[in-house]
Every structure is written in structure tokens, then in C-alpha cells.
Write a structure and sequence with these properties.
Largest sheet: none
Distance between the termini: 71 Å
Number of helices: 3
Oligomer: single chain
Shape: flat
Structural class: mainly alpha
Order of helices and strands: HHH
Helix content: 55-70%
Strand content: under 5%
Length: about 130
């Protein structure tokens, strides 16, 4: 049976405590620095609403074109597919060439990328990426 001492606990948790302390000091420090260094002048122009260089006119309840949402969903789908490539890319180089798993993993990722390309071509032909 192994008995842990206080020194063992400090050496195990020390880096985590230092990282948390750095994060807290950085967060509090940037807020304080922006208050001290940042501009303090106010006025009607500074307090007015800013909408990407355009004057805010009309209601906020305006309808958007459905293409905007379709494009956003397509982006999310392809973005998630790229995230699925990372675990494969970390495991694939470590597979033994003679185990037979390397060929199986390669075939699966080629199928995965091919279906992604087919989905991209389908979306392109449907005009999803055309935002007029």
C-alpha cells in the first residue's frame, strides 16, 4: 500500500494550480488594464448604436433569405466532418502496416471523404453556395 504525502500532492497538482492562477491573473489583469488605459470620453456619437458601418434603420424583425441558413448548416456539417478527421489522423500513423488494419482504416476514410465530396457537389449544384 502506497501512502501519499503532502509533497506528492503538491507536485501532482502544482502545474494545474499555476495554470489556473495564470488564467485568473490574465483575466483580471486585462479587465483592469482596459479600464485604466482605455478611452474614457463619452458623447452622443460614442453612445449611439453601431451596425457594421450602417445606420440602424427599421425593425430588427426582418426576414432573412433561407439561403443564409442553408449555407450556415452546410458549413456546420463540413466543419464537423473535418473534426472527425483528427482522431483518424492521430491513430492511422501508429497502425502496423502488416496488421491489415491500416488498409481498412484507409478505405474507411477514403469512403468518408468521398461521401463528403459528393455532398459538397450536390450542395454546389443546388446553389447553396450562391448567396445573391
Amino acid at each position: 500500500m502506497m501512502i501519499l504525502t503532502f509533497a506528492d500532492g503538491v507536485s501532482a497538482w502544482g502545474p494545474l494550480v499555476v495554470l489556473i492562477a495564470i488564467a485568473v491573473v490574465f483575466g483580471v489583469g486585462t479587465v483592469i488594464a482596459s479600464t485604466l488605459i482605455g478611452p474614457t470620453r463619452t458623447g452622443p456619437t460614442k453612445e449611439s448604436v453601431y451596425e457594421s458601418g450602417m445606420k440602424p434603420i427599421g425593425t430588427a424583425r426582418k426576414r432573412f433569405n433561407i439561403r443564409f441558413y442553408i449555407l450556415a448548416i452546410a458549413f456546420l456539417i463540413f466543419d464537423v466532418e473535418i473534426v472527425f478527421l483528427y482522431p483518424w489522423a492521430t491513430v492511422f500513423p501508429n497502425l502496423a502496416a502488416d496488421s491489415g488494419l491500416a488498409g481498412q482504416f484507409l478505405a474507411r476514410i477514403i469512403f468518408f471523404i468521398a461521401t463528403s465530396v459528393v455532398a459538397y457537389i450536390y450542395a454546389w449544384r443546388k446553389g447553396v453556395f450562391r448567396y445573391d
